[in-house]
Structure formats: structure tokens, C-alpha cells
Amino acid sequence: LAVLNKNKNKSNFKVKSFSGTATADMEDYVSPSLKSNPDVVLVHVGTNFLRLNTNHELIADDIVSLACRI
Fold first, then answer.
1. Burial of residue 52, with CB atoms counted within 10 A of its CB: 0-12 exposed, 13-18 middle, 19 or more buried
2. pTM of the prediction?
3. Are residues 1 and 41 in contact, defined by beta-carbon separation less than 8 angstroms?
């Protein structure tokens, strides 16, 4: 999770990694970062389970749910 928070004329980057975390669980990890009211949130999710024999529609639904929460 990378958060770009513009503070006056200075850019402040925060990078947080939650390796191996399921997309459905990311809401719990993202919530504290959202408290700082960032201008941009970049989330890279869903790739751990794509190569497994997993329902891709469920993964996509979890990603959409996370995006709606953000």
C-alpha cells in the first residue's frame, strides 16, 4: 500500500506492505492510513491468489469492495 499525501508544497510518501494478505482482509490494514485523509491511495492487490485454483470472480469482487471502501 502506497499513500501519497500532499502537504502544502511537500509530497509525503508512505509505503506499507502486507505480503500474503488476502484482498478481503486489506480493509483492516487500509483503514488506519485513510485516517490521514490522503489525496491518493495506490493499492496493488489480488495477485497472490490469481495463480492458485481460486474463483477469480470472488477475487475481483473483493478488489471492488476494497476500492469502494477507499
1. exposed
2. 0.61
3. yes
Compute the distance between CA of residue 35 and CA of residue 6 in angstroms, rounded to an integer. Answer: 14
Coil, strand or helix at 45: coil
Q: Are 65 and 43 in contact (CB under 8 A)?
A: no
Q: How far apart are CA 36 and CA 12, in angstroms?
A: 12
Residue type, 32: P
- pLDDT value of position 53: 63
DSSP bridge pairs for 2: 15, 42
Does pLDDT of 59 surpass 70?
Answer: yes
